[in-house]
Design goal:
Elements: H1 2-29, H2 31-46, H3 57-63, H4 65-81, H5 85-90, H6 98-104, E1 121-128, H7 138-149, E2 153-160, H8 161-166, H9 168-176, E3 179-182, E4 191-197, E5 201-209, E6 215-223, E7 226-234, H10 242-252, H11 257-291, E8 295-301, H12 309-315, E9 319-321, H13 322-326, E10 334-336, E11 339-341, E12 344-349, E13 353-360, E14 371-377
Parallel strand pairs: 1-2, 7-8
Antiparallel strand pairs: 1-14, 2-4, 3-4, 5-6, 6-7, 8-12, 9-12, 10-11, 13-14
């Protein structure tokens, strides 16, 4: 009897010590990562309002938002396991982040259809074709995709004209798409932005000039009785080279501190410069949209994510986003490990079009996935 009682007392004493450890952990350790995650989430939310040229670090929070969100959700589970309800209250301000969560991970279960035969519909493709050199037969396979899906309008970025004309399957497309706008032939580069159309293009031009092959072009296309303006954009790339990717990978395997600092500084300078160029291009496109009298849409490779300043500058109050309206889940369009980003977008005038369907097609012909969107034109 005495031995059993002592065992109970000892067990109770051990439990008291464990309880004290848990209490200490909750009081001293848990608040620090909770506050870090809070500020990271709010920073990502705020990046749409702050131009990269004003405060660059906040742009990086927007870029990393998918990872921040995953850590945020895991941390909530951790707090629940520890019963740290007071610390959960610290995360209450993150309710303002719900819209950007849905921008990044949209949830749409409904579909749309057109019952009125008088309503005009059309199908659009936007695709960074990766200079037709991601695979040996990429040019031919992309041409087959375009022919099979029977698009009305095809917007391509990193389009190499001579490779398209050398490929027999692609040459046949020019009979199907007799109208085209090719981005700024004055620059000394074969890498273009191009829009192909089955329908007549009555006017075209350059919406923004970035750096090197980065351009935004517009095409005024007549579909039925309507004229629509399609802006095809390839905003400034970050130009992370294969060598850069290898060095990023090597950092995770351990390098001297000085070398890591030098590499991070080099990459930061490269990426920061391109953020500023994209910002200026977004301002140019926004000005073109403001002056456009017809129905307008913007598509292409923005090289920026849905929570970014650039994305929201172009979107403004006038445009909606196909992926947000009809997509499901994290539809990343850049697919080179470890950079799985949603950077290719289709934005359209809310009172000009109805988005009927959005699809990201997982084909291996480029380092990007193409986006297919079907629209009806509002009368």
């Amino acid at each position: 009897m005495i031995r059993c009682q002592l065992q109970k007392e000892n067990s109770y004493g051990k439990w008291r010590k464990t309880e004290k450890v848990f209490s200490l952990l909750k009081c001293l350790v848990l608040p620090v990562p909770t506050l870090i995650i809070l500020f990271a989430m709010l920073g990502a939310w705020a990046c749409r309002f702050v131009a990269p040229s004003v405060f660059m670090p906040i742009a990086y929070l927007g870029l990393g938002f998918p990872l921040i969100l995953i850590v945020y959700l895991i941390w909530i589970i951790v707090l629940l396991i520890f019963g740290a309800w007071r610390h959960l209250l610290l995360l209450l301000p993150t309710v303002v982040c719900i819209p950007i969560m849905l921008d990044t991970f949209p949830i749409n279960i409904s579909s749309k259809s057109v019952d009125d035969a008088n309503i005009k519909t059309f199908k659009l493709l936007t695709y960074n074709v990766g200079a037709f050199q991601y695979e040996n037969n990429a040019t031919s396979e992309i041409a087959k995709l375009i022919k099979r899906e029977d698009f009305d309008v095809v917007c391509m970025q990193e389009y190499i004209e001579f490779r398209a004309k050398e490929d027999e399957d692609f040459r046949k497309l020019f009979a199907i798409y007799p109208y085209s706008t090719v981005g700024d032939m004055s620059i000394d580069s074969h890498n273009r932005v191009v829009t192909l159309s089955k329908h007549k293009i009555i006017k075209s031009g350059v919406a923004s000039k970035g750096r090197a092959n980065n351009r935004a072009i517009y095409s005024d296309i007549v579909i039925g009785n309507d004229t629509i303006r399609v802006i095809n954009a390839h905003l400034a790339s970050n130009h992370i080279s294969y060598a850069d990717k290898q060095e990023i990978d090597s950092i995770s395997h351990g390098l001297k501190v000085e070398k890591v600092k030098d590499k991070i500084h080099s990459l930061d300078k490269k990426v920061s410069n391109n953020y500023v160029i994209r910002e200026q291009m977004a301002n140019d496109i926004d000005s073109v949209i403001a002056l456009t009298k017809t129905k307008v849409m913007v598509c292409g490779d923005f090289n920026d994510v849905p929570v970014s300043y650039v994305y929201h500058k172009i979107k403004g109050e006038r445009l909606s986003v196909a992926n947000e309206e009809m997509g499901w889940g994290y539809n990343y369009t850049f697919r080179e490990s470890p950079f799985y980003f949603c950077i290719d977008h289709v934005l359209y005038q809310t009172d000009g079009f109805d988005c009927l369907n959005y699809e990201r097609v997982r084909v291996p012909y480029s380092d990007h996935y193409p986006s297919i969107v079907q629209f009806s034109i509002k009368q």
